[in-house]
Every structure is written in C-alpha cells, then in structure tokens.
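Researcher: Sequence of Olfactory receptor follows. Predict its structure.
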Amino acid sequence: MLNVTLVTGFLLLGFSEDPAWQTLCGLLFLLLYLVALMSNLLVVTILTLDPQLQAPMYFFLKNLSLLDVSLVSVPIPKFIFNSLIHDNSISIPGCAFQLLLMTSFSAGEIFMLTAMSYDRYVAICCPLHYEAIMNGDTCVLMAGVSWAMGVLFGAVYSAGTFSGHFCGSHVIPEFFCNVPSLLEVSCSDTLLVVYLSMAIGVCLSLSCFFCIVLSYVHILSTVLRIPSLKSQSKAFTTCLPHLVVFTVFVLSAFTVYLRPPSEAPSVVSRLLSVIYTVLPPILNPVVYTLRNSDMKRSLRRLLPALPAPWVSLT
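Model: Prediction complete. Tokens:
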C-alpha cells in the first residue's frame, strides 16, 4: 500500500509544458502583474494623500484596491517564477497557504463590493441621511467585517481541504492551487467540511449578489425619477460597471472553486482562472476610479507630469 505521507508536494501544470511557451507566459503574466500592481497602488496613494477624496465611497475604493493587490500577488508571482525557471513544483504547506490567501482575499472582495453597492444605494436613494448613515465608524466597521469574514471563510475552506491526506497523482492542472483539483488527489473519506464550506461559500456569494441586485433595483427606480438626463447618465455610468465587474468576478470564481472534481479542467476553465485572478485587479482602477472626475482632478493635482493619455481617460 502506498504511504500517503510520501506525498510532499504538487506540480502546477500551468498552460504549457514547452519551456519556450512557459517563458513567454511568464513574461506576459509579469507585464499583467505590473500593470495591476502599479495601477492599484497609484489609486491607494492618491486616495491616501488627497484630503478631498475622503468620502466613504473612496474609503471603500481604497480597501478594494488593497484587496486587488493582495489577491493578484498570491498566485501570479509564484507562477511567473516557476515559468521562468521551468520548475512548476509547490510544497503542500505552500499550496495550503496559497489557497488560504486566495479564498480569504476573494471572499473579502465580494463583501467589499457589497458594501460599495450599499454605499451607492444610500447616496442615491437616501441622500438626506447619507452622512448620518455612512459615518466614519460605520465605514470602518463594514470594511473590517469584510476583511474578517474573508479571513474566516478562507481559514475554514483551507482547513477542510487539507484536513485529509493526498495520494495518487500530484499534478494540479491549473497554475495555482484550487479546491476541485486538490479533491481529485485527496485520499480522505471525510470531506464533509469541504462540501459544507463550499455550500456556505455559495450561500454567501449568492446573498451578496442578491443584495447588490436589490440595491441597484432601488437605485434604478430612483434614477429614473430624476428629471435631468445628464444626472441619469452619470448615475448609470457609475453603477453599471460595478455590477458588471462583480458578476464577472463571481462567475469566474464559481468556475474556479466550485467546479465538480470529476470534471477535467479545459482551456476555457484555465482562461476563466486568469480572468478571475488578473482581470478584476486591472479593470477595477479604471472602472471605479480612473473614470471618476474627482479622481482625474486629483491625478492632475498630485501628478502634474503625468502623460496626457493617462489623465485624459473618460
């Protein structure tokens, strides 16, 4: 009988076994990572330094950018390093830590996006009570709960996945560790904790999704009663991208974490993994901040030498 304790690591299959393609993928992901990292850190810097951008909306945007930086910094640097040295191995503790951080930051981002939708709901539907409802203590509490719930869910999710032993094939057909692939090589007969955490994750994600949809239904009904077409257009421009990015993030996350273990990962599922890890951190600065007139004015004040194409985004 095979001694399961001999399994000391995994092999991340990635996108190609050809060394040349591995190097090319590594360089491409390096470029994407630098774009995501610099754009989100720029957003955090501006929102921290500019005293005129201290409204609750910008407080949540700063937390979202920090979550984006954290999320993209977990799997991508490891994948870049492995691709450039042509070594796709990862230890079991490293895989567990990667899964813990990925699920924590992903769950935290979903909660933060829900808090942002509530902020927009109060601002548009209850403008006279906005300052009383969205005061500093409330914002800090909502952001703190988002981070804490993310860490709690990540801990439960990871502990359940790594509570058993692993045997058989040690190949993970992704470029980072995820639960479906790990369940395929698990020897444990007691996976109740894993499936329970999956069910909790689905319920929480769907609850956040329905809360956001409900918020935007009320926002839509309020905006449609605004007589000014210009004000309506501004509200729609602010709200619609938020809902689109949230939907893309949740659907791709469902594909990554809730894919049935028996289903072999396809090229489409790997591309969705890329969308889930890379696309939101790149798009969020554009969707939530760089298309915001206050942010663009702050960019011009704080970075007068910034190239015109960057600050003239509309």
